[in-house]
Specification:
The chain is of the alpha/beta class. The chain has two helices and eight strands; from the N terminus they run βαββββαβββ. The N terminus is likely disordered.
Amino acid sequence: MTDTTIVPNETTTEARPHGVNLTEAAALKVKSLLEQEGRDDLRLRVAVQPGGCSGLIYQLYFDERYLDGDETVDFDGVEVIVDNMSVPYLDGAAIDFKDTISEQGFTIDNPNAAGSCACGDSFH
């Protein structure tokens, strides 16, 4: 089965507020995790922060807040928020969820990452 990218729910042809995409597998996993939490007020926040041996690290977590400058896109009921500082670093990035023998968890394929460290936790 090949994962497909979910097209955001939008009725205009304007550019999306942020360029992060969410695969169907990732959206289903996020929905499952939100159901386990029993809350409908949480969104998936994706950000980059200074740190790691290559300069920047990804952050992926549930957040109930909206902050000044946040950009949001709804992926079939999963709201993805990116802060305005992180938008340029994440434009075109795809979030996927893997559940195989060799890989389990969320992955971020980011075309803006020029390189990463050996552990794979940070990029530049």
